Amino acid sequence: MKKNVFLILFILLALIITGSILIKKNSSYTKENAKVGFPAPDFELKDINGKKWKLEDLKGKIVILNFWASWCNDCKEEKKSIQAYLSKNGTPDDLVFITVLYKDNPSSVAEMIKKDGYTFPVLIDDGVVSSIYGIKGVPETFLIDKKGVLRHKILGPVQWDNPHIVPHLRQVLM
Hints:
Layout: H1 2-26, E1 44-46, E2 52-54, E3 62-68, H2 73-89, E4 95-101, H3 106-116, E5 122-124, H4 128-132, E6 140-144, E7 150-155, H5 165-173
Parallel strand pairs: 3-4, 4-5
Antiparallel strand pairs: 1-2, 3-6, 6-7
């Protein structure tokens, strides 16, 4: 009887250990996924209007991937500068601003976006994408080149309507 109990406990322990190893091994959603110099982790999210966005579909464009929240004052100022850049320059063919909500209420953000007249996409994250990219706070921005390689990570707000920022990024990210 003691042999059977020992054998059952041993098998259960082996299954638990094997299962946890397989889960860790097969999990593609870890903080280490987003690394400068490597392909940016792909994702698919819907924006506040219900349109699906897949990072893979944006290859051939410079992608400015910006994580933000409506409760963040620096983020609010940064969104104004993104819109000011887009209003002045239009939507360039080779560059796209993608913003991703971080721990925020999409319905209240949708009202704010509409009220403020923002034209850039605002994607809704359930926490998975921000985890993949290792977001610790906002704003955080990732610069992805035309080949889909993550080139830079910026912590804190950027004044995107500064006339020198985007031309410099194009030179760096080409």
